[in-house]
Write a sequence for this structure.
């Protein structure tokens, strides 16, 4: 990027007033993603929050595609939209979340939370814009995140973390099973024997 | 593409998730907000990886690892939330005050009981779960 800029000089630096098609698409999808995220954290209907989270995560997958990270985009669709949101919906159903509007979805510290979020958003956006005002991503050339490139760098340079991550996933699986099964001592006194099998079916 | 666009979007998404973590009451909604924050970091990693053209592609590899760790986190987190719900009959994070140290923090804030009453009367097994959880909360942890 730096060498490309140096080679082509000042003519390679486009301005804010002449956005490319990729930039326009990125901004439009970004606005939709941010709106879905805002609805996710502010809606009072719990199941709707999970469904708006699908929109936000899918929008992020489109942003990855626009940044030429194709493999990560499809991994995002598969894992987040496909499994994480379904797990969250399972959790909402198993904890008997109220269907419809629930007045106590937000706790009392809403206003301090809003103040903290707005302050950190202002600080972060100011710093980021100030730091990367004159920086451009060069999206030309072969896609840097295609499946071929991803497999190449993942299994050439990142094999050991990849294997360690598989061990971590196995540990998380075992831990989730141990946590979500009903203890033998607590089973007779818990009072909900009918609800036990559906909880264990989840895993 | 201007680098400020993905960076600003990631910052705004992170702060949206921060608001959700701080303001939500249901533990599963808090987990959703944590997912939003993790995704904002992922967008930053991908954008800066594409910008820097790293030969090792550290950003994209870290993004894949973050996605896997987030999947593990959501599994463990939901298992914990289900265990807490089974023992206490509630998944509201501000009602779980057993480890609070001050006296006024141990009292449940006013208004929560009225909120819980319709659910309890509508479903008798909920009440049974809550009562059994409150009675046995010291020893019910498997």
């Amino acid at each position: 990027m730096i060498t490309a800029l140096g080679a082509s000089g000042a003519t390679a630096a486009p301005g804010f007033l002449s956005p490319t098609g990729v930039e326009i698409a990125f901004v439009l999808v970004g606005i939709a993603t941010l709106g879905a995220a805002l609805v996710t954290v502010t809606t009072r209907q719990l199941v709707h929050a999970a469904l708006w989270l699908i929109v936000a995560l899918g929008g992020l997958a489109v942003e990855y595609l626009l940044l030429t990270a194709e493999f990560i985009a499809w991994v995002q669709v598969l894992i987040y939209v496909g499994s994480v949101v379904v797990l969250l919906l399972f959790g909402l159903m198993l904890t008997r979340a109220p269907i419809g509007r629930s007045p106590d979805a937000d706790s009392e510290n809403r206003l301090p939370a809003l103040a903290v979020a707005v302050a950190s958003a202002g600080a972060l956006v100011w710093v980021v814009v100030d730091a990367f005002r004159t920086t451009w991503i060069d999206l030309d050339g072969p896609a840097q995140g295609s499946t071929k490139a991803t497999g190449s760098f993942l299994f050439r340079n990142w094999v050991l973390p990849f294997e360690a991550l598989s061990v971590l996933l196995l540990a998380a699986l075992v831990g989730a099973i141990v946590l979500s099964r009903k203890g033998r001592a607590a089973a007779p006194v818990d009072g909900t024997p009918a609800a036990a099998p559906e909880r264990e079916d989840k895993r | 593409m201007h680098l400020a666009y993905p960076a600003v979007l990631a910052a705004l998404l992170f702060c949206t998730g921060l608001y959700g973590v701080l303001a939500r009451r249901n533990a599963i909604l808090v987990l959703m907000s944590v997912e939003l924050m993790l995704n904002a970091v992922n967008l930053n990693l991908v954008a800066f990886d594409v910008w820097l053209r790293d030969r090792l592609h550290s950003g994209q590899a870290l993004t894949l690892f973050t996605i896997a760790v987030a999947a593990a986190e959501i599994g463990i987190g939901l298992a914990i939330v289900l265990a807490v719900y089974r023992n206490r009959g509630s998944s509201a994070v501000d009602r779980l005050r057993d480890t609070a140290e001050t006296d006024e923090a141990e009292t449940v804030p006013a208004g929560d009981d009225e909120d819980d009453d319709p659910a309890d009367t509508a479903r008798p097994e909920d009440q049974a779960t809550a009562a059994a959880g409150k009675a046995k909360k010291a020893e019910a942890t498997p």
